[in-house]
Every structure is written in C-alpha cells, then in structure tokens.
Amino acid sequence: MRTYLGFTAFLTWLGLLILLSLTAIGVAAQPTPWKDGFVVTEKIRLHYIEGGQGPLVVLVHGNAGSIHDFEFGTVQALETRYHVVAFDRPGHGESERTSQIGSVDDQARLLHDALQQLGMPHPIMVGHSWGGSMALAYALDFPDDVAGLVLLAPAAYPEHGQPFLLTAAGKVPIIAEFGALLSKLYIARPFLKGDLSTAFSPEGVPEPYYKHCAKTWLGRKQIKAYFEDETELDAALKSMVDRYPNITAPTIIVTGDADRVVPITENAYRLRNAIPQSHLVILPSAGHQLPETRPDSILSAVDSVGTMVAQTHAAGPVADAPIR
User: Fold this and answer.
1) pTM of this structure
2) 124-135, pLDDT tens digit by residue?
3) Could you give all domains of the chain from N- to C-terminal order, each with its CATH number?
C-alpha cells in the first residue's frame, strides 16, 4: 500500500511539473475563444467577432467584403497578442443597413458608437481599401478616440469620374435590384470571378474564398450596399483630403507594388506625404487583397504602430478592453 501511494504521489508531482512547464512555454495557454455577436446603434444591428487579448485592434473590410476577409490569416496572426474586433460594415455580411447610412462618415459614426457601447475605446484601426477610407474618416471625426492607423491599400483620393452604370446603380434602386436578380441566375458569377482575379493578381484567387464570396456577396442587400458605397465614396473623399494633415495618430500605410485596384501612386504615396506621422510600406509582388495574402505584414504593421503609440501617445498605452 505504501508503495502504491508513493507511486501515485510521484505521478501527481510529475503531472504538476509537466503542467507548470507547459504553461511556462505557452503550450497550456489556449487562445481566448472567439465571440460572435451583434450591437445595435441607431436601430441598426451590426455584426462583429471578437477574440484575443492585448491592445485593442479593430478591423474594417473593403467593398464588397465582410469579416470573412480577415479570416484567411489576419485574425489568426493578430490574436496572438492583440484583442481583435472585426465588424461587418452596414449592409455587408450579417449587418443591417438603412437608406440613411451610406457615406464613410455615417459608417465611421456607427462604428464609433458601437465601440463606445462595447466599452472599447482608443483602438488601433486597421482598414482595407474602402475600409481604409472609413478608417481615415474615423481618425478625422474622432481624433481623440483613435490610437493609431494601419491602412491597407487604402482608397484615399477620389477617382476622376465613375462609370455611368455604377453611379446610376447607386442612385436608382431598380438597377441594384436587377443586379441582384442576375446574381440569382448565376449570370453575375463570372464577373465576380474576374474582379477577384484582378484584386488578387499577381496571385490566384483561393477557391474557398471565391465560393464564400459567390455565396454571400451577391444577395440583394449586399449588392445594393456595394453600389451605394461606391457611389458615395468620391464625394466623401473630396471633403476629406484637405484634412489629412490634421491626422496626428501614428499611421502606417501598407500597399502592394502590383495593386491593380487602387493605384498606389495616386493613393498610398500621396497619403504618405499628407499625413505627418505616417510611414509607407511597399510589399513586393503583392496585389490588392492584403488581408488574405499578407497577414504577417499586417501583424508587423500593427506591431510598429503599437510601438509608435507607446512612444508618442500622451494618454499612455493603448486601451486593453476585456472580452465579455
């Protein structure tokens, strides 16, 4: 009996030692489970996901798009040392939208209110493409409530004119409805595949990503939101460009040298010269879809902004909001 108890005690001691060792090297510490939730602001339900622990990082997708854009490596990279929150913009993914919500300023206001409700102040804002425009609007409209910016292939300056049909689709609902009808008949899918090929070039479109987009981007609500967002963007950017020098938050602009969607000379380079505390990172052989193809570069950019925030932000370190 004494031998049995002694062996049991030895196994118990050995087990505790192994557990403590694994905890020390991080094996036993599992990532915080991701939360999938909704927050209501101005009677609009916004869908978001939340996970990880550390300084707060908020992700804003492009047009079209959804939270799913960041689930091909970006959230997995960031959650290792950040508290990450990603939102479906109004009308995209699982978020609702009303006719009064269209401009980047409207959507920045909704996002700010949502973050206030969730108790998540002073985020590092990460915006891709159209989401980069929205991150810029957020920094301009709420300068005291943004810790830093990471702008991924941002659309920062208005284009010289838009295709007539695109403008008409954003202004005349029946055209967007017709587009939704075509999508249900699978007529729109070849066009979607072509647009995605351009966005991912020089790399190929991941088949799982294409299948998800074909399933979720071509609904009536999403198509209508896409056209409205595109139509409203240029006017919003025209009102923003002269204010870019007012942005004081540490900013890193990340762009691919092979981007065929948002011209880097007319956007990233100009923005770098306009924002005083900004740095430009050009990724070789990279296209527009950086959240799916360059997640490690996004993590590096967020790390750099976090370091800049710690060094220059008078209010102290970035807020670490707990997950509820």
Assistant:
1) 0.82
2) 999 999 999 999
3) 35-312 (3.40.50.1820)
